[in-house]
Specification:
CATH superfamily of the largest domain: Glycogen Phosphorylase B
Shape: globular
Radius of gyration: 24 Å
Helix content: 25-40%
Structural class: alpha/beta
Distance between the termini: 10 Å
Strand order of the largest sheet: 3-4-5-2-1-6-7-8-9
Number of domains: 2
Oligomer: single chain
Largest sheet: 9 strands, mixed
CATH architecture of the largest domain: 3-Layer(aba) Sandwich
CATH class of the largest domain: Alpha Beta
Length: 500
Amino acid sequence: MTITFEWAKLFKKKLNILFVGAEAAPFAKAGGLGEVLFSLPLALRRLGQDARVFIPRYGTIDLKKYNLEMEIEGLKVPTDKEGPNEYLICNVKKYIGEDAPPTYFLENMEYYEKRANVYGYADDHIRWALLCRGVLEFLKKSSWVPEIIVCSDWHTGLVPNYLKTTYRKDETLSKIKTVLIIHNILYQGMCDFRFLPETERDNGREPIPPFFSERLAKLNWMLRGIIYSDLIVAVSKTYAKEILTPEFGMGLEKVLNEHRVKLHGIINGIDYKNYDPKTNPYIPQHYSVNSVEKKVKNKPPLQKRFGLKEDENICLIGMPARLTEQKGFDLIDKIIEKVLKYLPLQLIFLGDGEARYKEMLKKVKEKFPEKIGFLFEFERKLPHLIYAGCDAILIPSKFEPCGIVQMEAMRYGAIPIARKTGGLADTIENFDPQKEEGTGFLFKAYEPYALFATICKAQTVFQIKRIWKKIVKLAMAQDFSWENSAKEYLNLFFNLINEK
């Protein structure tokens, strides 16, 4: 039976839902995952659900600022190692406030509090194993127990595994359902399993080794999350289909096809309050879908910021992204000089990344100093000005599970020029010149001249101001709020707990 959200609204039971992850805004955010573990639980709470979050308490999280209260002291987390390191001792603290969902923090001096960063340590496998098992030991003692645990990416992939094996006979924990959200299937554990010798590969069925075993670092945590979870959600409908294929499955397409009955796709959302051109404090000229003609006043300040000729009439295309192959920079490398030589436009780039792409942009800047600008560092405020000042945003990704840049850009009326893949395919409607409708310009083949042709098309349409204004208004009218995504998740959750 499929439960529609309209029916679910009448369902009297409030679900207890616990999100477990390596990061969550505003406490610790290294990327988009941290934003999801903030926004999605909040959206579910607005729909009447009791959604909470569980993350490590890193040293950078200020106890005084967030006024954390002790929930459980001296929690003993088994490591499955005999001897003096049989347990790791942790505390669990809790935050309750209006600016975030209720959040639990797993404290451990060695593995979290002494660490300045969320990721990037040689013993990350121990840190995430402690998180996976720590949350379950906490729930054994907690007065609040979830019906559903939502795990995020490989770092929490052992939670479903532990529940179905180590804790399968526990009267409380054995009743909990698990959901695995795949944000990026490329990352599956501590190594690249595509290049691991066959004899060392994890089949997902062997027992989880002790924390301090070298074998723990060789486990494919994403594989185990897929096998043992009750439900799998990819972060867009197209990505959910793509990862079933060898091109996008990163070696896990076979097991995903075996478990495809529990695989779904739900697009992420964006925070409409923070990304609002009517009120955003980081742009000089405010505007809305009803006053899009004011948007152009943000272009000269942006051009000045990147050292370009100030001209409101030229087509300005921006790309706030990491300088990596995944983001399509190998395509850009092959066509950028021809784009700048033959097309009347300007390009700006914001983001750090691989040295080879930095050198490429520097060399192009020497040839076209007034047509290209870049900044190889992240500034929190600058993407807002880029969206407000640019006419278009470049997103030629090799793959893009969801992507939020296109949604943020459209919120500001910056039109995506993007590859038709993953979440980009689900959120951008390709421009139809006969109907004069669409919210962006898409190309399918991952080839440099497919990108070149699409840039040419967008630049040509830009010169027809009547049509371009119509595209801008259509883009700004799209609704990518978290409420829509939360309703889809809630629908799946109700289906899951009502399965016989």
